Amino acid sequence: MKRYAIGIDLGGTSVKYAVVASSGEVLFNGQLPAFAQDGPEAVLEQLLSGITACREYAAGEGLELAGIGIGTPGVVSADGRTVLGGAENIAGWENIPLADRVEAAAVLPVVASNDANVMALGETLFGAAKGATDVVFVTVGTGIGCGLLIDGRLYRGYRNSGMEMGHITVRSDGEACACGGVGCLEHYASTSALVRRFCELSGNGKDADVDGKDVVFFYKEGNPAAVEAMEEHWNYLSHGIASMVNLFAPQRVVVGGGISEAGEFYLEKLREGVRRQAMEVCGGDTEIVAAVLGNRAGCLGAAGLVLDKTR
After folding, report:
1. CA 165, CA 146: separation in Å to the nearest integer?
2. Which of 241, 254, 279, 282 could form a disulfide with 249 if both were Cys (CB 3.0 to 4.6 A apart)?
3. Residue 247, SS3 per DSSP
4. Distance CA 40, CA 10 (A)
């Protein structure tokens, strides 16, 4: 018997929402601007607008909703109810009783989790890691996010505050990171870092109108600055992934984010780097694959928080 839930994927740019069946079918979806720089109340208003649209659809189709799952940037309390902080892309998004606020307005059970964890769950339940029990999910974008499943269950660390793979150290003598540390993987291997490095090498300046897709295009054209920037990107990211492989020996590493859609050549370069760095005994059975759910992963995983109680 199918069950249904609302999945919310909250980001710094948009609020994505969907009605999802336990089979993984997305029955209804949409998105709204997040108004992330306008403060928590503006963000909550947009989030509730998306939920209202989902509830209206479900009512029109005669569907009974089991609850609402929310993927949000930042650290979420262990009970899945409060955003404690750490969301640099949403102004003032800390100490927010998110589940309480949404439950009061929507009159449905609510559970929240970190957005990278939610995407990892989506890919495990419905996507590239389906059928696997031990999975590392890495999302490469403005920053670097990570989700981890151990023996089929999401691992979040004590009080839900772990799995910040983007802030493992890859250069002890490195540059300062926004987190306050130095030499962090995110500072050297994110898409933002790739673009920054390309601009430095090409002399275009940091304000050049370039994104990750442009750098990939220039790489394929043989542009020397793009080639060097991409090789550095792969080197740092493969070191980070190899560290996770040595620690957790996952069955699969799922790589998401827009740049992971560059093509098979991108993943093969990562595989080569990880093979060089990871211990064979830890990574001999590890597959490195691209995420397949794209921008649906967050909503699907968020709904999975409600629909799959084993997680």
Report:
1. 6
2. 282
3. helix
4. 12
- Segments in 36-176 forming alpha helices (H): 40-61, 98-106, 115-126
Total number of domains constituting the chain: 2
- Are 101 and 195 found together in one domain? no
| 159 φψ region: left (φ > 0), alpha (ψ -120 to 50), beta (else) | left
**By three-state DSSP, how is residue 172 classified?**
coil
pLDDT tens sequence across 180-205: 899 999 999 999 999 999 999 998 76
Q: Taking a C-beta distance cutoff of 8 angstroms, is the pair 237, 185 a contact?
A: yes
To the nearest 10°, the Cα dihedral for 166, 172, 174, 176? 60
pLDDT digit string (tens) for 76-114? 998 999 999 888 779 999 999 999 999 999 999 999 999
pTM given for the model? 0.84
Which phi and psi (to 5°) does residue 109 adopt?
Answer: -60, 140
Cβ pair 40, 93 in contact under 8 A? yes
Q: How far apart are CA 270 and CA 272, in angstroms?
A: 5
In a shared domain, residues 83 and 185: no
* 280: CATH: 3.30.420.40
User: How far is 138 from 155, CA to CA, in rounded Å?
Assistant: 14
HSE, CB side, 13 Å, CA atoms: give it for residue 112.
22
Domain that holds residue 245: 131-292
Please, which residues bridge with residue 65 across strands? Answer: 4
- The dihedrals phi and psi of 107, each to the nearest 5 degrees, come to 55, 45
